[in-house]
Amino acid sequence: MRIACQTLPYANVYLDTSLQVIHVEWDGLVPSYVFRQTIACVLELLKSREVYGCIYDLAKLKSIPPQDQDWLIEEVVPLLSKSSLRKVAFLESFTRLGQLNMSELVYSSFPTINFEFQYFENVEAAMEWLGQKNFTAQRHKFANGRAKLSAV
Q1: Which one, of 117, 107, 112, lies nearest residue 139 by Cα?
Q2: Order of strands across the sheet that contains 146-151
Q3: Rounded to whole angstroms, how far apart are CA atoms 117 and 21?
Q4: Cα separation, 139 vs 124, whole angstroms
Q5: Which of 20, 33, 53, 113 is the most buried (most CB within 10 A)?
Q6: What is this structure's pTM?
Q7: Alpha carbon separation from 9 to 6, 69, 89 (Å, rounded)
Q8: How far apart are CA 99 and CA 33, in angstroms?
C-alpha cells in the first residue's frame, strides 16, 4: 500500500508499507525551505517506522543549492547512517547535463556508511532491488571513484 506522507509543490513523499520503502520525488528548482522540510519528513518517517529502503527520484530535479548540499552531507547523512535505512535507490535522468552525483557527495565525506546506493532509470527496477530482503549491516567503501561493497 502506498501512503502519501507529504505532497507539496516541488516535492512529494510516499511510504510503501508493503516493502517499508520511502519514495521521495523532486520536481524543478526546489526552494531551500521545501528541500529541508522534505528531508525532515523523511527523517521523521525513519524514526517512527522500521523503514529499510528509499527511492530518491532526482529525474525532474533542476538543482540543489550548495548550502543545502552541505546541510545534507553535514547534518543529514550522519542521521541516515544511524537509522534503519539500508538501501537507497536513485532515479536520475541520464541525458541531463549537470547531474547531481549523490554518491560522490556522500562518499567523499563519509568513506564508510551503513547503507547501499544504486542508480536506476525507472521506479520498477528500483522497487525490485529494494524488495530483495538482504538488508544486513553492510558497509560501502569509496575507492577509485566507485562505491565498493564490503562485508562488516
Answers
A1: 112
A2: 112-113, 138-143, 146-151
A3: 14
A4: 25
A5: 53
A6: 0.77
A7: 10, 20, 22
A8: 21
